[in-house]
Specification:
mainly alpha, elongated, 0% strand
Length: 121
């Protein structure tokens, strides 16, 4: 939700700063960030249900893969004329930072037992 709001703000600012191409770049960047990180969140959720002991390892691995893929997207679209690439890059950076900050905020407030209550393991 926070990332979407940040994307809307970025799109409005981009429209006033760079016109239609800026707006397109900001919207595309927001969609890319939301897609990458939502897919990663779903994968981590599935792994944590099946094998909770692997959750942290897979979360770190998933995050590294997401950042590398975002870098690849930036590289692939660096010379495009379809949208403003500076707005695109800045929006990806901003949306990523908002996503990570909101994830940190949410997970610091969750009450997750670090000892299994049934004591089977």
């Amino acid at each position: 939700m926070c990332t979407t709001a940040a994307g809307v703000i970025a799109a409005i600012a981009a429209f006033f700063a760079a016109g239609g191409k800026g707006l397109l770049g900001a919207v595309f960047a927001t969609v890319v960030v939301l897609a990458f990180f939502a897919i990663g969140q779903l994968a981590i959720g599935r792994i944590s249900r099946n094998n909770p002991l692997m959750m942290m390892n897979m979360a770190l691995f998933t995050y590294i893969v997401q950042i590398l893929l975002l870098g690849l997207v930036l590289f692939l679209f660096k010379d495009t004329k379809a949208f403003d690439t500076k707005v695109f890059g800045l929006t990806i950076l901003g949306a990523t930072l908002v996503w990570v900050a909101s994830q940190v905020w949410v997970f610091t407030r969750l009450k997750i037992a670090y000892v299994e209550p049934d004591g089977e393991r």
